[in-house]
Amino acid sequence: MTELNLREPLIFELSKPGRGAGTQFPPRVAGSAQVPANLRRKTPARLPEVSELQAVRHYTRLSQMNFSIDTHFYPLGSCTMKYNPKACNTYAMLPEFLGRHPLGPEPQGFLACMYELQEMLQEITGMPAVSLTPMAGAQGEFAGVAMIRAYHRARNDLARTEIIVPQAAHGTNPATATMCGFIVKEIPCDANGDVEIEALKAAVSPATAGIMLTNPSTLGVFERKIVQIARIVHDAGGLLYYDGANLNAILGKVRPGDMGFDVIHMNLHKTFSTPHGGGGPGSGAVGVSARLKPFLPLPIVGKDGARYRWLTERDLPQSIGRLSGFMGNAGVNLRAYIYMRLLGREGMVRVAEFAALNANYLMKRLQALGFEAAYPERRASHEFIITLKQENKAYHVSAMDVAKRLLDYGFHAPTTYFPFWYPSAC
Amino acid sequence: MAFIPHTSDDIARMLEVIGVRSIEDLFDEIPAELRAGTLNVPSPLSEMEIGRLMTERAATDGRPLNFIGAGAYEHHIPAPVWAIATRGEFYSAYTPYQAEASQGTLQLIYEYQSMMCALTGMEVSNASLYDGASALAEACLMAVRSNRSSTSRRILMPRAVNPTYAQVAQAIAGNQDITFVPVDFDRSAGRTLLEALKPHGGQDFTALVIQQPNFFGSLEEVDALTDWAHENKIMLIAVVNPTSLALLKPPALWGSKVDAAQGADIVCGEGQALGVPLASGGPYFGFMATRMQYVRQMPGRIVGRTVDVEGRPGFSLTLQAREQHIRRSKATSNICTNQGLMVTAATIYMSLLGPQGLEAVAQASMQRTADLIAALAQVPGVKRAFTAPHFHEAVLLLDRPPAAVLAALSRRGILGGLDLSERYPELGHAMLVCATETKLGVDIDSYAAALADVMSASRAAA
């Protein structure tokens, strides 16, 4: 069992007026520059006053109160947690990369990495264009749905006010559609975890702007009727959005572009091993089909001859605009680039193969122990759902109880109660 | 095989348990016509090879002497900051949904929130947002939800606010039928004109955005602007630089009237200056703080202090009923992540600097900028654009387009500033320059000498 130290005072409790990490204070600069009296702060901000060693010990101790990939196994569905190779951090943190101001001259070394990252993501997803700008999955989703909106508007097709979202979708999907000014229409899944085709047919109309789907779905199974779904939505004049938060199950096996999707976002921190950092930063690159290319968020890396440059509003006047102060989470993208070059062509396909092998193996082992898989007749993708409704009935044990008890054994809790409508999902 | 531990024996055993012959059989539910061919991506590299490639590419970009700010500021970062932030226990930890497995991250975020409240003077801070620009967009959306006396969805956005922030607010909030109305600035002082606001008095506006210091580095007369907003039932969104708050009046105290309505209603900004490297523009983090009365309208995660079943103190995510994983289409925002690792760095940074250190950084930055402006304004053909007091940035006017001058400086290894002539054509040949505590007298002297040289060389050529 893992015993974490769970006692550490607040940094404020270690503080004492007049103490400080003196070597960190800049030398005084002679001169008379002063803030005018009416704009000046009257009392110092209540920040902690501690020595350097106190701060180092305190935050080192706090770090030891965490589970992390480097210390624990995370059997998480939905959010894949895999090893963050040390090389990715080391080489993304070279001093020239860290010291570079975003508004300086276009840096050819850095942009070469970003351009090649765009190209690799295009190839993996089967989409002709990619923007690395969105700063997290939810912002990538926002960009994707905003592009769908911009596309219909550019065609003066203003009646398309609805986005269809399957019930199994991640909570960000409906939240994003709302943020983009759409009305959300939820549709159910059938007993095998596939979208109910009849419900979809009933839901599409001239008001349909698009559908947001994940495949494999959040139920951990491949949507087998995807070609039919794409046809129904496209025939109705809508576009298909692929929630590519997690591509671990399909890398090199099947490409969203080939399935008929028009736009995809990718959480680089799930598939391409950039760190979760205790809840961010992520990076949510978006890829699009040719018809959505003019609407991509800026900036994007372009290439004129041998020279890389930022594409701006001049190049893409119909862009949905800028989503960040500069160019998104550049340092995260750099880590994803390094990871992808380390894996290369062969390594990428193995990601999907071994994710599937591990997930299906674990599912069988848990079934052998008597746990009930939600979709026992289906292949697991990189994840699967166990339902604890029997245990709940027999022992009054909830999915949350099991999740929390696993923590005591040093395993991070699996994702629980998601999809929220599935009984005691785990 | 890169990062895969399985031996052929492991694989055989696992396939047997699953009951399939090959790994390929696990993909038999994917329709054959959809299966991908061989990916056209490069072959794998070893760590040594990628190390050489990245080192070469980094060297291509060099390490110029930087005098650009404009929303990203070069400050000294104490060695412990990233030594601790990149410890695997922080770096590779998951989002702290499971409080029992995340007390370190949760306590750290709680400390961060307390520090941001100390700097801004506000009652409650969230756990951070993506960056400063998107934080302003979220603040605008939050104001629309919070200001019950306004139905117009119109927000006053001064032109002295960082123009990229205004673009981002438009891109994100514009989809929800929010309109932004520009407010002009005083051409001689370089700050927002109260006179330009007055014609809007008595009309329905949801919020007024004030950036302090503004994009030009000038200090706004925040008291008068705040009073005007509140007299007109308009919420005040403050966009602030956290370093400057060691010297400047906290936004909670803006306005001349000492009453319950005093101060900004929502405070947001870019946190990068607090220990996060420039790194080509990200990852940074946005911060947001507000009054307790608006907390349920605030986007992003919030960490609270609580007690466990045995009465021992602990920390946990709180007020999650605002968030997307519970509220779905009715959530305050679609945001899931904060910028946890950047907040980790910022919290360690603020602890090491403390009130004295941060004030010393702010004061030194302000003085270095004053010295820089004085030195550059000595160069023939260069003068200050504005008269308002400034913090650590200011606008200079040249007697010719800045682009060629900046390109010539860049060839000498100096990033001389940001050309404003496209963003603000009415200012003429304007550029924005910045110095922080990292620029010593010798750096300022060498910039001034190079600028004099470049200006006289191009004058001679003309």
Task: Give a nutshell description of this structure.
The complex is a heterodimer of chains A (426) and B (462). Chain A has 426 residues and is of the alpha/beta class.
Overview of the structural elements:
The complex is a heterodimer of chains A (426) and B (462). Chain A has 426 residues and is α/β, with parallel strands linked by helices. Chain A has a domain at 88-342: Type I PLP-dependent aspartate aminotransferase-like (Major domain) (Aspartate Aminotransferase, domain 2). Chain A contains 13 helices and 11 strands. Chain A starts with 51 loop residues before the first helix and ends in an 18-residue tail after the last helix. Chain A is globular, with a radius of gyration of 24 Å. In chain B, α3 (79-85) packs antiparallel against α11 (340-377). Chain B is an alpha/beta fold and 462 residues long. Chain B starts with 7 loop residues before the first helix and ends with a helix. Chain B is 36% helix and 14% strand. Chain B has helices at 8-18, 47-61, 79-85, 88-91, 103-120, 132-146, 163-173, 194-197, 222-231, 324-327, 340-377, 402-411, 441-461, and strands spanning 65-66, 124-125, 154-158, 179-183, 207-212, 235-240, 266-270, 286-290, 303-307, 313-317, 382-384, 393-398, 414-415, 418-419, 430-434. A 7-stranded mixed β-sheet of chain B has the order 2-8-7-6-5-3-4, with helices on both faces. A 4-stranded antiparallel β-sheet of chain B has the order 11-12-15-14, with helices on one face. In chain B, β3 (154-158), α7 and β4 (179-183) form a beta-alpha-beta unit. At the A-B interface, α1, α2, α3, α4 and α5 of A face α1, α2, α3, α4 and α5 of B.
